[in-house]
Amino acid sequence: QVQLTESGGERVQTGGSLRLSCAASGRTVNSHSLGWFRQVPGKEREFVAATSWSGTRTVYADSIKGRFTMSRDNAKNMVYLQMNSLKPEDTAVYYCVASGVGLPTSIWSEYEFWGQGTQVTVSS
């Protein structure tokens, strides 16, 4: 089992920055790939970014590429999402996810563990 707890979501103005954090726990968490998805009510969940178990391979959605940076610190069992140049369309609940596959993937069904989510609101 892997437990995930997100934090850092808040309201910010267009063009601002936020850093989301996710605390991961569980005996095998360091062998899991970790990722971020987001969802707006009434819409499908959207892939944001994911990194391999080692943190050496990271993939990003085209919609956030160049603005968001994902990183993980296996020594601290933490994963981060640095979000810059935020836009109103980035408003969503952001979920931290983990997959036992170990490799990053944009397919939500590959992730068997999900956090409770943290709300990010970007105002214009």
What does the model show?
By secondary structure, this protein is mostly beta strands. It is 0% helix and 48% strand. It is built from no helices and 11 strands. It has strands spanning 3-7, 11-13, 18-25, 33-39, 46-51, 58-60, 68-73, 78-83, 92-99, 113-114, 118-123. Strands 2, 4, 5, 6, 9, 10 and 11 form a 7-stranded mixed beta sheet that branches. Strands 1-3-8-7 form a 4-stranded antiparallel beta sheet, with no helix packed on it. A hairpin with a 6-residue loop joins β4 (33-39) and β5 (46-51). The relative contact order is 0.32.
Entry keywords:
124 residues, mainly beta, seven-stranded mixed sheet, four-stranded antiparallel sheet, 11 strands, globular
Give a nutshell description of this structure.
The chain has 124 residues and is mainly β. It contains no helices and eleven strands.
Cα-atom radius of gyration: 13 Å
Order of helices and strands: EEEEEEEEEEE
Principal-axes geometry comes out as: globular
Number of strands: 11
Which ranges are low-confidence, i.e. pLDDT below 50, for 5 or more consecutive residues? none
Helix content: under 10%
What structural class is derived from the secondary structure elements? mainly beta
Percent strand: over 45%
Largest sheet descriptor: 7 strands, mixed
Mean pLDDT: 95
Put simply, the count of helices is 0
What is the end-to-end distance? 40 Å
- Kindly report the oligomeric state of this protein: single chain
